[in-house]
User: Fold Cyclin from Ambrosia artemisiifolia.
Amino acid sequence: MLTITDTDPNQLPEKTEPDSASPRVLSILSLVLERLVNRNETLNLSSGGGRLGKNLEVFHGIRPPAITIPKYLDRIYKYTDCSPACFVVGYIYIDRLVHRHPGSLVVSLNVHRLLVTSIMLAAKILDDEHYNNAFYARVGGVTNAELNRLEVEFLFMLDFDLTVTSRVFESYCSYLEREIIMMNGTKLKIENGTRTNTIEDIAEISVEDMESFSSSLSNGGLA
Assistant:
């Protein structure tokens, strides 16, 4: 599972200075994605767990991660230089991927890997400076080899269509803002901004629990 290994002697130190408030887009995306995952999990169960979502199996973990979607997005924001716009574009990529592959479902087994892959790709497109795959893998709790593989798979599933026009971007921002109003009556505006951190600040996490992770590595990868 995606868990923070507090007792790991190789764990890097957490930041000691107080963090500035996370951008509102993280809260908005967290609520929208959690609702999407819950709905898809129900749909998958009602269908008997058949072929629904099979197109995204490459992004599936062994079991649902322990870390929540809000905390995972906060972690990516905390340790990377990607702008808040990257989170919106990452969501656009996931939505585009699902529409290109009917029957695909974003569920608890794949949402974290989809997020770290899509946000990393968005940063490469949008930001003048960005971290490499190894850094994102460390932040996201996957191996560098796995993230490289997920990136290639994601790109081919999108037919390398990473272009997002300003009109499309604004339409998704408006959609996400409307979703929040519908869900809890709160009006939130998606903002822009950047942050900076160094690799020394990253606390280690593992994509699965340590036993499962060690076992999978011995077999050449995760299930």
